[in-house]
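Final report, closing paragraph on structural work. Over the funding period we assembled a curated collection of sequence-structure pairs, and we close with a single example.
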Amino acid sequence: MAHDAHDEPTRAARLLDAQAKAERLFAEIEARGLVAPGEGERAVSDRVRDLANELFGTTRHWHKRIVRSGPHTLAPYRENPPDRRITADDIVFADFGPIFEEYEADFGRTFVLGDDPDKHRLRADLPRIFDAGKRYFAEHGDITGKQLYTEVERLAAEAGWELGGWHAGHLVGEFPHETIDGADTESYITPANGTPLRRTDKTGRTCHWILEIHLIHRHRQFGGFHEELLTL
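Its predicted structure, as stored:
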């Protein structure tokens, strides 16, 4: 599918539409109670995949589908912990990257089973810290990846959490977007990225970013995750 590099309103609308579909998918995950005690992480992931296909037609995913529970919620994205059965008092997060009409979504949410107050506090802090990070981005026109990462890290520490990953977000766009690899720090919101986030890519298109908040409680061995579009 050819895109006019400068038709930004259309690109923005497509990215927002992809995210709206992902948001609907996650609302259905909740409504159908797919994240439940006794279920295996992989089985839940497969059910979410099937649900996406049911809601939107056959959906491809641009990155691996992740459902993680308990201590697996500490693991960075690149790790592949073994399958685990979800328990009655777990915290669980899901991270999916569906592609809708060639545009990528990237969406992550956290579910808490049981009534552990620390887990509920972490889940409540995730969207709050996301919103604060998004506000900080909006208020600083020339903000770099490093500056936004530092602010998200500060917000997490202020709330009593640590960040779980080496970055707090990345580029998103048409599939396949500019290759994201570990060496390309300019594709990430990370301390090594001193370039402004508001810029164009090598084809002249506006760079759009995902902000991801991965908070962990190292001592109690659990974490949570929240991500969606930062720039729109």
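Residues 8-31 form the longest helix (24 residues). The first strand starts at residue 60 and ends at 61. We thank the funder for supporting this effort.
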